[in-house]
Amino acid sequence: MKPTLVLVGRSNVGKSTLFNRLTRSRDALVADIPGLTRDRHYGHGKLGDRPYLVVDTGGFEPMATEGILHEMAKQTLQAIDEADIVLFIVDGRSGLTAQDKIVAEQLRKSGRRTLLAVNKTEGMAASVVTAEFHELGLGEPCAISAAHGENVNELVTLALQDFPDEPEQERKDEHPKIAIVGRPNVGKSTLVNTLLGEERVIAFDQPGTTRDSIHIDFERNGRTYTLIDTAGLRRRGKVQEAVEKFSVVKTLQAIEDANVVILVLDGRSEISDQDAHIAGFILEAGRALVLAVNKWDSLDEYQRDIIKRDISRKLPFLQNFARFHYISALHGTGTKGLLPSVDVAYGAAMAHLPTPRLTRTLLAAVEKQPPPRAGMSRPKLRYAHQGGSNPPLIVIHGNALNAVPQTYQRYLENTFRDAFELEGTPLRIEFRTGRNPYAEKSRAPLTEAEAKRAHRRRRYGRKKYG
Questions:
Q1: Mean pLDDT calculated for residue range 367-383
Q2: What is the pLDDT of residue 438?
Q3: Which of 117, 186, 391, 398 is the most buried (most CB within 10 A)?
Q4: Which pairs with CB-CB distance under 8 Å and at least 24 residues apart come from 371-376?
Q5: When comparing pLDDT for 412 and 216, which is higher?
Q6: What is the pLDDT averaged over residues 100-113?
Q7: Mind listing the pLDDT tens digit for each residue in 247-256?
Q8: For the segment 425-444, what is each residue's pLDDT rounded down to a tens digit?
Q9: What values do phi and psi take at 260, rounded to 5?
Q10: What strand order describes the sheet that includes 214-220?
Q11: Of 3.40.91.80, 3.30.70.120, 3.40.50.300, 3.30.300.20, which CATH number belongs to 355-434?
């Protein structure tokens, strides 16, 4: 097991900056705004050949009894319970505060081994800036600068000195990554907690509770998944705060990084244009899709019929391939079918499509319905092969393919989708005009006499030299 290092401290002391430094990533949002991080954020780090797990937490307010600060404190306490060692981060420029003393007392009660790191000490004498923090009684403070990397390796070395050296085992990244996306306050975080069976992320009745994209690994029925809880996507005109703009970017990146996206809709409100825009972006990104209509248990039969007709009218482009689930994330109703649908969509997105079968399917489709003429000629579709996955890409070779209309391309997409049972994933088709490279490779090179004969035929015609 990798040692687990948990970063704890009050708001805006640089925990997320240190998290990004330790993981050599930009996974955690960083801004000069208190309370930006709210949920537990896990990442992998390495010091030389020694791997470790690092956990970022929100600003710790142990005395909070209600509201979002209380929920953040609960997340931090859960992280401390999981810790092998706690890195208590304080701000060297603002000095020792009453809140630091409260956090230190809470850490002493936890019984976890704690190292005190005084951050933002670049350009300052270490002995001077750390002097007052001895009052916390947590041992020798370590002066660091997370932003500049000063003494960070020394801090990690000190944290890992009591753990045995274990080489990192190569991790196979072949499991589904599932992004949970949708508008604000539709129940994304509640759905994540229901799927995990624990209060892993903060689910609060307030739009904008989730600000960062939280990656969570878990196992179900012997299979590994990664859930990505994301911030809600509002219309561009309503996104004004800088933090929300960063959150939107992280959500869009999460969609790009995922294999399957679960789009969550609010069943108690009509399907909005923003829902359609989000679905369109998912398809443009080429990601497999499962649609979940949440808060279904609070609707009567008439309201359910209305929302189903609304989906058919505003999201018709999802009807052909995406699976629909009507759920209650809060009570767990209907959620058992989500992961099986994710498995189906993931299998379709990563499917291997044999070239001979693709070509036979293409020729059968052309024989059944030839492409329409373009002027005096008709496009000729000769053979097909797979050009990629996630989403599946089918490359079709032939002549005059730039004249194939969109309607015929959709006909081919539906034909391939039915033939290979590609449910839950978009399918892309690319046309390439030119000769068959496989046929050219199999053709024997011409002898000198045959080359001269071919040249004379091209120059003087077939009748004289046929």
A1: 86
A2: 46
A3: 117
A4: 371/403, 371/404, 371/405, 371/408, 372/405, 372/408, 374/400, 374/403, 375/403
A5: 412
A6: 88
A7: 677 788 888 8
A8: 999 999 988 654 444 444 55
A9: -130, 140
A10: 214-220, 223-229, 177-182, 260-266, 288-294, 323-326
A11: 3.30.300.20
Give me 12's structure tokens: 């805006």
Out of 3.40.630.30, 1.10.510.10, 3.40.50.720, 3.40.50.300, the CATH code matching 177-349 is 3.40.50.300
**Residue 207 near residue 183, CB atoms below 8 Å:** no
d(CA 450, CA 325): 66
The amino acid present at 420, given as its one-letter code, is: F
pLDDT, the chain, mean: 82
Would you list which residues are annotated within the binding site?
Answer: 9-16, 56-60, 119-122, 182-189, 229-233, 294-297
Instruction: Give Cα separations from 12 to 24, 57, 93, 247 (angstroms).
Output: 20, 11, 12, 18
pLDDT band, residue 230 (cuts 50/70/90): confident
SS3 19: helix
Residue bearing tokens 């009052």: 135
| Cβ 175 vs Cβ 225: under 8 Å | yes
Q: What is the pLDDT of residue 439?
A: 45
Nearest to 351 by CA among 419, 415, 256: 419
Starting at the edge strand that comes first in sequence, how are the strands of the sheet with 428-433 ordered?
380-388, 393-399, 428-433
Q: How many CA atoms lie within 13 A of 409 on its CB side?
A: 15
Q: 44: exposed, middle or buried (C-beta count within 10 Å: 0-12, 13-18, 19+)?
A: middle
Q: What is the pTM of this model?
A: 0.70
Report which secondary-structure segment, H or E, holds 312: helix 301-314
The answer to whether 376 touches 316, Cβ cutoff 8 Å, is: no
**What would the mean pLDDT of 157-174 be, rounded to a whole number?**
72
238-to-272, 308, 397 alpha-carbon distances in Å: 14, 27, 46
Cβ atoms within 10 A of the Cβ of 45, count? Answer: 19
Q: Which residues are annotated as a binding site for GTP?
A: 9-16, 56-60, 119-122, 182-189, 229-233, 294-297
pLDDT number for residue 260: 93
